[in-house]
Every structure is written in structure tokens, then in C-alpha cells.
Specification:
- By secondary structure, this protein is of the alpha/beta class.
- The chain has 16 helices and 17 strands.
- It has 2 domains: about 10-160, Chitobiase/beta-hexosaminidase domain 2-like (Chitobiase, domain 2), CATH 3.30.379.10; about 165-495, Glycosidases (TIM Barrel, Alpha-Beta Barrel), CATH 3.20.20.80.
- The strands form 3 sheets. An 8-stranded parallel β-sheet has the order 12-9-8-17-16-15-14-13. A 7-stranded mixed β-sheet has the order 1-7-5-6-4-2-3.
- Helix 4 (about 180-190) packs parallel to helix 6 (about 235-250) and helix 8 (about 300-315) packs parallel to helix 9 (about 335-350).
- The chain is elongated, with a radius of gyration of 24 Å.
- The protein binds ligand TNX.
- One of its GO terms (cellular component) is membrane.
- InterPro entries: Beta_hexosaminidase_sua/sub, GH, Glyco_hydro_20_cat, Hex-like_dom2, HEX_bac_N.
- One of its GO terms (molecular function) is beta-N-acetylhexosaminidase activity.
Length: about 500
């Protein structure tokens, strides 16, 4: 035994691993196809990462994985670019042009006792793939008699690709403000579950949260108010760029929203000429909706909107601009439609596709508009008739601000109570007769009337946001509540390690 080299000893120990089953791992979202081979890959201090293609974002993906392995295991794994390291136990992250991988987020994972091979066409696909690797590294090493620690990764093959290209959540930073650091922490958690969109609700009646250089009073005056009289806050353009870049590093797109023509009291407090509701404008720190409107028949209102959309679009690399459009109860119907049509032209002029809440379909929007279905089945039907792609956010299923039950500390229940099972058990692929071809994806909005701190945000978002990631990524055949429940219970060590104060739903047998 004394003559055995480290590597040989390691091989021998790998052979002695207990049987594994890759299909039984706690991966969320559940990958498309899993083929277990019942062996083990030893992740240990001798492991190295190799990535190809210096220019394409792969080295960054490799480094991201190394950092996360370190955070979980304390192992320091070197990352080698374009040069196969002289080690055993290599994690290869390869760019591959294989036709099988001809979708932007597709990846394949081949895990044997000797290596982990992750193939994808794009860095984005590789980034989704490393989340799977993170999830199948055990929480604890199996400390046998060895003098070094080993984390056993089950062997087998994973073939994966998401069902929906848009997998998002929204954070309302207008009713209560959340800091750049808090938003980044939320991004970290979402990326682990393969989300690719974070929509920021940047303006509402109670506050305006993004600096607009040509209209400085928006934040000077209305950055400092929020629901309940707190101090509010706002992002400078540098802050916003910082968030955008942080999200981009995790292959996540930021969708900025300026809600209009309703939900605009804060803008009109800063610039009263915008106001179209005929009443005196005062700062608002309550939680009513539907009382404010822009003056839709004033040219200067559109000059203002053009500046706002332009400045935000210039610092938003993603393809979308969300123009709101919900609950404009203080706007006359034809004024609303006129407004939405004009705003869509402005959004398109600045190179973005317009997303809007489902009410926008009453206007003559063009085929690039994306309604976000939150409450009106009639609007959803109209969107199908116009053959638009929509985002599904049905309030009674997908609103993260709904209370779990009548005892929930935070949240509202105007749409429903949404316990963890009800949030998961529905079929976006067959929701209220909307054809699959009209669905761009799913988004779970988190309105912030009742939450102020990150812990309160986490209470409403987790664990339900984890379920929406599976609804938007995994095929219906791969989703099953009984099976999901077990995998969800096993997220507890990760959430604890990330210091996430999730709601410990009694429906789940938490680990
Ligand atoms: C309705 S959903 C709203 C928001 C509120 C939310 C509270 C939607 C498009 N509008 O203004 O924050 O309900 O659940």
C-alpha cells in the first residue's frame, strides 16, 4: 500500500465508492434527460478545470465555477485556458459546434470516474451547465480514511435545454427600495436556478428609482419617498450599469420598467406638467393603485418619455424595455390606447422591444410588443388573436407577493393565497388555452408594498421562486410535485449557506 502513488490510491478509492444515482440528485430545474452510470468522480485537491476559447466567455465560466467550488468545499481548483493540465480528474468546459447543441442555452454533461466534460455552443449554455455541476457536488465530503477530502460527483450523462427562452422574476424597487448589494444577492440566488431575466420595476406612484440626467428632479425629488414613509433611495446610472454588468456575468438580462401612464404619481410630483388627472399632486406613500395618470395629449409628455427611454436604453444591453401600462384607471380608454401606441414607437426607435402589462393589447400594438399576462383572460385571448408572444405571470399562480396562507407575515392576497404546492402545480404549456407558440416564457413578480428588507424579500421569494425556475425550464413530463418536494427539501443546506431566510413551508420536509 505504501508504494501506491496518490493518484493510484485515489483511483482505487473511486472504485470503492458506494453506488451513485445521478437521476436521484437534487437538481432544480430538473434536466431534460439524465442517464446514470452509478460510479463516482472524485472532486478533490487534485482536480483542475480546463476551458476552451479564450475570447468567448468560457474562461470566465470556468473561473465562476472554481469560485463557487471554493465557497462550497474550500478547495482551490486551478483554471487552465487552452492548455490541458497535467492532472487527473479534469473538469473540461468545451465550446462545441455540435448540432445537438444548436440552442443558446443547451448543454451536455458527461461525467465519468476520470473527468467531467461540459459541452455547449455558447458561454451562456456553459454557464447554465455549471449550475448543474454546482448542484450535484455534495454538501459534505466523504471523509474516509484518506488524508485528503473527496466530494463524490455521481457519474452519467445529462442532456439539457430549457423549454422557455424567457425565465424571469420581477423585483419592485419602487414601493420599497432595495440596494445594489441586495439586488446582486438576489441575482446570485436566481442564477443558481438558471433564471435568465431580472425585471426591475423602477418607478411607481411612491418613488422614482433611476437617475435620468436630462430630468434630474425625478430622483432629487421622488427618489426619497416610499411606502410607509421610509427614506427610499435610487440607482445612479453608474449603479444601474453595475447591476447590469453583474447580471450579465451570470448570463442574466435586466429588463427595466418605467410604469406609465398610470402608476406615475412620483414622476408628476417631480414635474407637475406630466400630470393628467387634474388634481393637485402630492407625494404618495400609501398602497392604493389606479389614481394617477400622465397627460396623454401633451407633446411635452412624449418629449419627456423619449428622454427617459433613451437614457435607460443606452445603458441597457438587453433587448427589452418594459413600459408598464397596468391599472391606468385614471386614463380614458382611447387616451390609453393612443398613449401606448406612441410609447411603443418611442421604445422601438431606441432599439428595444416593448413589454407591457396585459392591458396594452387593447391598443394597436405591432407584432413585436410583448404583453405580460397578469390578470385578464380577455387580454390574453386578444394577444393570441394578434399572434403576439406573451409572458405568463398569472397573479393567482405566479405572484411572489401573494401570502402563502392567512398566517403569512408578509404579502397580500387579493389574487389568492399561493402555498408552495399551488405555485408549482400548474402547466404553463397549457395555461387557459394559450397556445405554446404564443408564450415567450414565465415571470414571477415580487411587488414590495409589504416588504422592506432582504430577509422579507427572501421570505416571499423562497422557496416559490425555485419552483418557477422548474416550470419555465423543465418539460411537463419531468415535473412532479412528489418528486419536486424532495428535491426542494434538499435545497435547505444551500439556502442556509447563502443565509437566505426562506419561508419554511410545512408542506416540505426540510433537510
Ligand atoms: C397589482 S400586477 C399591480 C401592482 C401591485 C400588485 C400587488 C400589476 C400589473 N399591478 O401595482 O403592486 O397588484 O399585488
Amino acid at each position: 500500500v505504501a508504494l501506491l502513488s496518490c493518484e493510484a490510491e485515489k483511483k482505487k478509492r473511486v472504485l470503492n465508492f458506494p453506488k451513485t444515482d445521478l437521476a436521484m440528485e437534487n437538481m432544480i430545474p430538473k434536466p431534460m434527460k439524465i442517464i446514470p452510470t452509478n460510479g463516482g468522480f472524485a472532486l478533490d485537491e487534485f482536480t483542475a478545470i480546463y476551458t476552451s476559447e479564450n475570447a468567448s466567455g468560457f474562461p470566465e465560466v470556468g473561473q465562476f465555477l472554481a469560485d463557487k467550488i471554493r465557497a462550497k468545499t474550500n478547495l482551490q481548483i486551478p483554471v487552465n485556458v487552452n492548455e490541458v493540465p497535467n492532472r487527473e480528474g479534469i473538469i473540461y468546459i468545451n465550446q462545441s459546434d455540435s448540432l445537438e447543441l444548436d440552442a443558446p442555452e443547451a448543454y451536455q454533461l458527461y461525467i465519468t470516474a476520470d473527468s467531467v466534460i461540459l459541452n455547449s455552443n455558447t458561454a451562456e449554455g456553459a454557464f447554465r451547465g455549471i449550475q448543474t455541476i454546482r448542484q450535484i457536488i455534495p454538501e459534505t465530503s466523504n471523509d474516509t480514511l484518506a488524508e485528503y477530502k473527496v466530494w463524490t460527483i455521481p457519474t452519467g450523462k445529462i442532456i439539457d435545454n430549457p423549454v422557455f427562452e424567457y425565465r424571469g422574476t420581477m423585483l419592485d424597487v419602487a414601493r420599497h427600495f432595495f440596494t445594489v448589494e441586495e439586488v446582486k444577492k438576489y441575482i446570485d440566488l436566481l442564477a443558481y436556478y438558471k433564471y435568465n431575466v431580472l425585471h426591475l420595476h423602477l418607478a411607481d406612484d411612491q418613488g422614482w428609482r433611476i437617475e435620468i440626467k436630462s430630468w434630474p428632479k425625478l430622483t432629487e425629488v421622488s427618489g426619497g419617498t416610499e411606502v410607509g414613509g421610509g427614506e427610499g433611495g435610487f440607482y445612479t446610472q453608474e449603479d444601474y450599469k453595475d447591476i447590469v454588468a453583474y447580471a450579465a456575468a451570470q448570463h442574466m438580462t435586466i429588463v427595466p420598467e418605467i410604469d406609465m401612464p398610470g402608476h406615475t404619481n412620483a414622476a408628476s410630483v417631480a414635474y407637475p406638467f406630466l400630470n393628467g388627472n387634474g388634481k393637485k399632486i402630492e407625494p404618495y406613500e400609501g398602497t392604493n393603485v389606479g389614481f394617477s395618470t400622465f397627460d396623454t395629449r401633451k407633446d411635452t409628455v412624449y418629449t419627456f418619455i423619449d428622454d427617459v427611454v433613451r437614457e435607460i436604453s443606452e445603458i441597457t444591453p438587453g433587448p427589452y424595455f418594459h413600459a408598464g401600462g397596468d391599472e391606468s384607471h385614471a386614463t380614458k380608454k382611447n387616451d390609453f390606447n393612443y398613449f401606448v401606441e406612441k410609447v411603443q414607437k418611442i421604445v422601438n426607435k431606441h432599439g428595444k422591444r416593448m413589454i407591457g402589462w396585459d392591458e396594452i393589447v387593447t391598443a394597436d400594438v405591432d407584432s413585436t410588443a410583448i404583453p405580460q399576462y397578469w390578470s385578464s383572460g380577455d387580454n390574453a385571448k386578444a394577444a393570441v388573436r394578434k399572434n403576439l408572444k406573451m409572458i405568463l405571470s398569472p397573479a393567482k399562480k405566479a405572484y411572489l407577493d401573494m401570502q402563502y396562507d392567512s398566517l403569512s407575515k408578509y404579502g397580500l392576497h387579493w389574487a389568492a393565497y399561493v402555498p408552495v404546492d399551488s405555485a408549482y402545480v400548474w402547466n404553463p404549456e397549457a395555461y387557459e388555452g394559450i397556445p405554446l407558440k404564443n408564450i415567450l416564457g414565465i415571470e414571477a413578480p415580487l411587488w414590495s408594498e409589504t416588504i422592506e428588507t432582504f430577509d422579507e424579500l427572501a421570505y416571499l421569494a423562497f422557496p416559490r421562486a425555485i419552483g418557477y425556475s422548474e416550470l419555465s425550464w423543465s418539460t411537463p413530463e419531468n415535473r412532479n410535485w412528489e418528486n419536486y418536494k424532495v428535491r426542494l427539501a434538499n435545497q435547505a443546506p444551500f439556502l442556509d449557506r447563502m443565509d437566505v431566510k426562506y419561508y419554511p413551508s410545512p408542506l416540505i420536509d426540510w433537510k
